[in-house]
Amino acid sequence: MVPVSWYLILSAVLFTIGVTGVLTRKNPLVIFMSIELMFNAANLAFVAFSRHWQSVDGQVIVFFVMAVAAAEVAVGLAIITSIFRIREDVNVDDMNLMKG
Prior knowledge:
Blueprint: H1 4-24, H2 28-52, H3 57-87
Helix pairs in contact: 1-2, 2-3
């Protein structure tokens, strides 16, 4: 049986990789993938604690987090697509030019 601490260490490593991707990348698609990696790291921690405490509460929370992540990806990709159609460039540093 694998100890819970191993799952939490893996979750922390995945979350750190996701934060690094969000802070260092300029491509919005890579940023969205990094955010999804952070969501999955949190989900892994929820499932690990859920299994450790023999409760399904963590798994129910994971279900809702996945639903929010799917909605976030759908809206984010729609926004990125519309920006690309208008400007033909999706650099995150230039997004502040869209302010009114």
